[in-house]
Design brief:
Shape of chain B: globular
Order of helices and strands of chain A: HEHEEEHEEHEEHHEHEE
Order of helices and strands of chain B: EHHHHHHHHHHHHHEH
Strand order of the largest sheet of chain B: 1-2
Radius of gyration of chain A: 21 Å
Strand content of chain B: under 5%
CATH topology of chain A: Alpha-Beta Plaits
Helix content of chain A: 10-25%
CATH architecture of chain A: 2-Layer Sandwich
CATH superfamily of chain B: Formate dehydrogenase/DMSO reductase domain
Distance between the termini of chain B: 61 Å
Strand order of the largest sheet of chain A: 9-1-11-10
Oligomer: heterodimer
CATH class of chain A: Alpha Beta
Structural class of chain B: mainly alpha
Chain lengths: 244, 396
């Protein structure tokens, strides 16, 4: 088969466009995404997390997160038997490269806790934003319009979980978007996709077939800082009382 | 990690509200305090402090002009600040700042100053020529009637504006306190007492400032300081400072006694990172010393020169206390982790746009503006048309 110069000039841009489409990922199972059909959250299973840092690296690569700031991070707790409320916690570089070898303890235990924006239904960050640049979508994701944000950092102060920061070069608030660009195409989040143990699961509470419903019936699931009454949608399985 | 003890959430290591956010409530508080002092004359008929009335109004205006600058400089995108006016978010405490500010500036302070100086402005316009005449004609906004009836109307309108101004001054600064007090995520800030403490500390700082400015300008002008005036201001300063101190101690004692989960963090900070600024500067040097000095004045009789010296020292220390209090609230509230497991350090810049020099410049800039204002609108009591030392302050 031979190509004429004319055919070649037509085919190259078409192939480039097709390749861009492949790189963007193929929309799956969501041909007509309806905002009101979903209510997104995240299941974080502490009993499965091994602190490998894959989620942190995947998030940084997917979302171009600046160094020393984190949309998600992993903490390692050491909770000793003689002090149940004051654990020792570390998160070197957000747990991105894993953790140092733990010393053996006789009366205590180590565990890993992945952290991220809780995408609260009654989020304090949304409440305090002076211009409404941060908002909750009809499908339950807290997002920031960075073309509108003043960079006042009031939302950073209002978040009880330390999930927000001011982007060092954009000078606006930044945080986890629950990979909104992916989940609205039927994909899962970058952190979930790269978790080797399934410790993170994207959940859709409005989907009656989502496994989260069965999981919630059979497991002891909690949210962080329930006393803050934020309507947090980061659901933790195996959450120890010492976790803050 | 440098400057971190224990565990901070990784996004908490750097502070997001800098020293400029310390300057913002401090400057705003001075506005409210100076206005409250002015209202003592007009509404509460405290005739002794009449010599400071106009100076207090101009001081409030000078500081109010600067009040939004620290906020603006702190914003990541100051060019978007007008969005707060055009598309405010109605659940945000901060969104209302623009409206409260404009209300206070336009409807209260500028209006009251204009009413009070209108006669002076018109007389100056009539007696001058050239550019000066043009300036005062502009300031008169076209009014030229200084008949007795017109001045009586000015008096009545000024009284009403001041009456509206008192709750507005409380609103302006109580609201600043609410910005902090309503953050439930931060136990150091989250308190219903915060707006009240802010209002009383604002009154104290504003009154102390006007006292110092009055004494300084009177001395520079080679005039005699009106001792009944400064004695009365010092008396009000003393009583309001007692209320302020009691409120702050009530908050502190409540925290110590309740000792909730944040107590360990707060206690650690007060004993270490905030020890100098809170215990030494704010409580010992800035509060107990001036309270003692002002208290002694109330029960003993010193010569005027000793009293004047004590007033200047006390007022300066009061400013130290209130500025320290703002620092302890704003910076202190960010030094500990919301996990209550660790502490960070504030690395303050020197010549950065949110550094020490900028903060000092913004704190002192209003004094420069005040110098210009008193040149344009001399507030000195003897310059007031028809001034009479013996008259009743209610006629002001």
């Amino acid at each position: 088969m031979t190509l004429s110069r004319r055919q070649f000039l037509v085919l190259v841009p078409a192939a480039a466009a097709a390749w861009q489409y492949v790189l963007a990922g193929t929309p799956q199972d969501a041909p007509n995404y309806q905002l009101t059909d979903h209510w997104w959250g995240m299941l974080l299973d502490i009993t499965k997390c091994i602190g490998c840092g894959n989620c942190v690296r995947a998030c940084q690569a997917e979302n171009d997160v600046p160094d020393e700031y984190f949309r998600t991070w992993v903490e390692r707790y050491l909770r000793t038997d003689w002090d149940l409320t004051t654990p020792e916690v570390i998160s070197p570089d957000g747990g991105k490269e894993g953790f140092p070898t733990a010393e053996e303890v006789k009366n205590g235990m180590y565990f890993f806790v992945p952290k991220m924006c809780n995408h609260c239904a009654d989020s304090p960050c949304t409440q305090v934003c002076p211009v409404g640049a941060t908002f909750i979508t009809p499908d339950g994701v807290v997002l920031i319009d960075q073309t509108y944000c003043l960079g006042c950092a009031y939302c950073v102060q209002a978040c009880p979980y330390g999930c927000r920061y001011i982007h060092p070069t954009k000078h606006v608030a930044d945080k986890c978007t629950l990979c909104y660009h992916r989940i609205t195409k039927g994909l899962t989040t970058a952190c979930c996709e790269n978790c080797p143990t399934g410790a993170r699961q994207l959940v859709d509470l409005k989907n009656p077939n989502d496994p989260i419903h069965a999981f919630l019936k059979t497991h002891d699931v909690h949210v962080l800082k329930p006393e803050m009454a934020t309507g947090a949608k980061a659901f933790y399985n195996g959450l120890d009382g010492s976790v803050r | 990690m440098g400057g971190v003890e224990g565990y901070m959430y990784p996004n908490e290591i750097n502070l997001y509200w800098s020293v400029l956010i310390v300057v913002y409530p401090y400057v705003t508080g001075l506005v409210a305090g100076a206005f409250i002092l002015a209202s003592l004359v007009r509404i509460f008929n405290v005739r002794e402090v009449a010599p400071t009335y106009r100076l207090a109004l101009l001081t409030a205006l000078a500081f109010l002009i600067v009040a939004p600058l620290p906020l603006l400089l702190h914003l990541g995108h100051p060019e978007r600040c007008f969005e707060m006016y055009f598309t405010p978010h109605d659940t945000s405490a901060m969104a209302m700042f623009g409206y409260v500010y404009i209300w206070y500036l336009m409807a209260v302070l500028l209006f009251e100053i204009w009413l009070d100086f209108r006669q002076d402005i018109i007389l100056t316009a009539r007696s001058s020529t050239g550019l000066k005449r043009l300036l005062y004609r502009l300031l008169s906004l076209g009014s030229n009637n200084i008949s007795e009836h017109a001045l009586a109307v000015d008096e009545r309108a000024g009284w009403i504006v001041t009456l509206i101004g008192i709750p507005s001054a409380f609103l302006l600064h109580g609201y600043v306190g609410f910005i902090f007090g309503s953050i439930k995520a931060n136990p150091w800030w989250s308190s219903p007492l915060m707006p009240v403490v802010f209002i009383f500390s604002a009154m104290v700082s504003g009154i102390a400032l006007v006292l110092m400015v009055y004494m300084f300008t009177t001395r520079v002008r080679g005039r005699q300081i009106d001792m009944p005036c400064v004695d009365t201001i010092a008396k009000y300063l003393f009583y309001i400072f007692i209320i302020d101190f009691v409120l702050e101690m009530l908050d502190l004692v409540h925290r110590i006694y309740v000792a909730d989960e944040s107590f360990r963090s707060i206690s650690f900070m007060v004993h270490t990172k905030l020890y100098f600024s809170q215990i030494v500067l704010q409580i010992y040097v800035g509060t107990l010393v001036p309270l003692l000095l002002l208290g002694i004045i109330q029960i003993t009789r010193f010569s005027p020169s000793v009293r004047k010296a004590i007033y200047v020292v006390s007022a300066a220390l009061v400013e130290v206390a209130v500025l320290s209090m703002r620092w302890n609230v704003v910076i202190g509230g960010q030094l500990f982790s919301k996990s209550f497991l660790g502490y960070t350090t504030y690395k303050i810049g020197l010549i950065t746009h949110e550094g020490v020099f900028m903060a000092a410049f913004l704190t002192l800039l209003p004094l420069g503006i005040l110098w210009v204002l008193v040149k344009i609108l001399p507030p000195w009591p003897e310059r007031k048309p028809g001034f009479n030392h013996a008259r009743d302050a209610s006629t002001l």
